[in-house]
């Protein structure tokens, strides 16, 4: 693997990114010292900086309350998550922070909040055992959230006992006893996993997938995959399209051990390794659910009801991360190779072609993304995240970030706010201060390449616009000709013109002998049609004779007038 470069002279954890999350059109990063930065679309307060303005560069967020002496409470964040339009953060004391939640403060706009606020509505799920000698107060204070996750309009959390909590628009039992997307502002525990530990979890728009320990506590053993919620596209991987109110085991992984899971809007992706018996780190990526845009990576646009391996990924690789956008999927290996597949628009899946090129369109199979020309590997990768139509990766051990895809509202963090089909460096000041000359040169080459790409794209768009205008003009002319032909045909034959009235010789060969076609038409016409033709041509002949007579009379009158004047 390529050398990541010289060690950073500061070694300051505030310059190192350790975690990443992407929402519909915004991003969050977490630094080694517990700082949180955000950028992208600001609508609904998803950025968390007190404004709904778009941010083209990462901006730092403030947590905690201001003290009377002017200082700020010291809050260290250890986890982050992003849903479509909301964000979550987890502090080292187990407290959960959120923004775009309803609060009564100066930063509220309508029913959402523009800055991080502490979520105090967790209620512990714990039955006090009188024989244990633990008081109810002690039992409740022992609850601590260890991880947060978000997706769509849902929020999820896992506590120190492995209990899964969820709130937002979640698939739950309605008052009628049926499955429904129930809006809840209070975190609710998933009772089905009591006695076991939820280790990883992900959610799409209407479904949830969790990796759960086989025993009571998790000690690094193989995990079991469960799924529940709506299943209209087969995103649960249970072999049908029936919705599930309660979690069910995805049995496909009996011989494999899943260790990472991600959900798109209506599809799911997992990473697995062979169970215990193998010492290799060889990974397999499985996908299932909606495949209309190739987001499953199976070479087709067919949906899949069972987990199916992405066979075109290389063998003998160790995949460290997988994530899903609305309709695309990306994975990264420990060696720094990144593959993406699915919806092409704004994802950079065709780096050597414009949108109108022959290589554009949805990528039905994995495509390797390149960090630089002739340098496909992202050095020392840390994590990858997918938004609705963009992708971000942390590499160089946490000291560099790249992004590509839809760039509107500043979601790529490069300060330009335009779509980019190739990886572009996220312009975070903490990273840029330590940039090496090689990086600066690389950025210049990248900017030049992007300018050339933009010029080529503009030229193609101009040609396309000109072609479309010409096509519209031709369509207008064709419409007039068809209308004229229909009037003539109706006058002669008494019915509107239709495609079946076009002579066979003209349809098949493009040539037309009017004499032969006329004889053929007369030979196949019935008596009624011949009578109509006779009447039509008799009237036409009479009209022609009348017109000739009128013109002859005008000529005689003109000659007489000229003679009398002379």
From TrEMBL:
RCC repeat segments run: 34-93, 162-214, 223-274, 283-335, 336-397
User: What residue spans carry the Basic and acidic residues bias annotation?
Assistant: 441-453
* Region named Disordered: 433-458
Tell me where on the tree of life, at the top rank, the source sits. Eukaryota
The keyword Secreted is annotated on this UniProt entry:
no
Please list the residue ranges annotated as the RCC1-like domain: 136-427
The alphabetized UniProt keywords are: Repeat
Transmembrane stretches in the record are: none
InterPro entries per record:
RCC1-like_dom (IPR058923), RCC1/BLIP-II (IPR009091), Reg_chr_condens (IPR000408), Ub_ligase/GEF_domain (IPR051210)
Q: Which SUPFAM superfamilies match?
A: RCC1/BLIP-II
The record's annotation in Gene3D superfamilies points to: Regulator of chromosome condensation 1/beta-lactamase-inhibitor protein II
Please report the name of this protein according to its UniProt entry.
E3 ubiquitin-protein ligase HERC4
Its organism's taxonomic lineage begins at: Eukaryota, Viridiplantae, Streptophyta, Embryophyta, Tracheophyta
């Amino acid at each position: 693997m390529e050398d990541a470069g010289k060690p950073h002279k500061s070694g300051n954890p505030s310059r190192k990114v350790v975690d990443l999350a992407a929402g519909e059109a915004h991003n969050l990063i977490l630094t080694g010292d517990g700082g949180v930065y955000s950028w992208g679309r600001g609508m609904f307060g998803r950025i968390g900086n007190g404004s709904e303005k778009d941010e083209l560069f990462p901006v730092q967020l403030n947590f905690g309350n201001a003290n009377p002496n002017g200082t700020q409470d010291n809050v260290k964040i250890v986890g982050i998550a992003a849903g479509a339009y909301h964000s979550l953060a987890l502090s080292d004391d187990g407290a959960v922070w959120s923004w775009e939640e309803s609060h009564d403060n100066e930063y509220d706009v309508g029913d959402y909040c523009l800055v991080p606020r502490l979520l105090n509505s967790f209620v512990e799920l714990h039955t006090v055992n009188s024989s244990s000698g633990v008081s109810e107060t002690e039992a409740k204070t022992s609850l601590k959230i260890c991880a947060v996750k978000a997706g769509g309009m849902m929020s999820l959390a896992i506590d120190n006992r492995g209990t899964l909590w969820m709130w937002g628009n979640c698939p739950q039992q309605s008052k009628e006893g049926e499955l429904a997307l129930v809006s809840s502002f209070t975190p609710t525990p998933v009772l089905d996993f009591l006695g076991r530990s939820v280790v990883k979890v992900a959610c799409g728009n209407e479904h949830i997938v969790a990796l759960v320990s086989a025993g009571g506590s998790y000690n690094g053993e193989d995990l079991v995959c469960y799924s529940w919620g709506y299943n209209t596209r087969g995103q649960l991987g249970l072999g049908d399209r029936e919705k599930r109110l309660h979690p069910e085991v995805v049995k496909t992984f009996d011989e494999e051990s899943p260790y990472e899971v991600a959900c798109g809007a209506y599809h799911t992706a997992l990473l697995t390794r062979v169970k215990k018996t193998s010492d290799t780190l060889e990974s397999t990526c499985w996908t299932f659910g909606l495949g209309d845009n190739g987001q499953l990576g199976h070479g087709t646009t067919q949906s899949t009801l069972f987990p199916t391996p992405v066979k075109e990924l290389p063998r003998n690789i160790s995949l460290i991360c997988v994530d899903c956008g609305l309709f695309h999927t990306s994975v990264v290996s420990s060696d720094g190779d990144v593959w993406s597949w699915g919806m092409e628009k704004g994802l950079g899946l065709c780096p050597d072609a414009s949108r109108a090129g022959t290589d554009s369109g949805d990528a039905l199979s994995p495509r390797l993304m390149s960090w630089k020309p002739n340098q496909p590997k992202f050095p020392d990768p840390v994590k990858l995240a997918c938004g609705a139509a963009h992708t971000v990766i942390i590499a160089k051990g946490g000291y560099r970030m790249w992004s590509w895809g839809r760039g509107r509202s500043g979601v790529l963090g490069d300060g330009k706010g335009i779509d980019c089909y190739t990886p572009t460096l996220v312009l975070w000041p903490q990273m840029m201060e330590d940039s090496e000359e090689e990086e600066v040169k690389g950025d210049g080459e990248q900017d030049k390449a992007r300018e050339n790409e933009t010029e080529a794209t503009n030229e193609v768009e101009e040609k396309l616009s000109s072609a479309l205008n010409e096509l519209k003009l031709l369509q207008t002319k064709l419409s007039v000709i068809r209308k004229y032909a229909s009037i003539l045909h109706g006058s002669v034959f008494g019915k509107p013109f239709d495609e079946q009235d076009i002579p066979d010789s003209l349809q098949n060969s493009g040539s037309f002998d009017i004499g032969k076609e006329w004889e053929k038409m007369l030979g196949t016409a019935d008596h009624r049609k011949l009578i109509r033709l006779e009447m039509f041509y008799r009237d036409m002949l009479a009209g022609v004779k009348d017109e000739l007579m009128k013109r002859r009379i005008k000529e005689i009158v003109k000659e007489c007038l000229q003679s009398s004047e002379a």
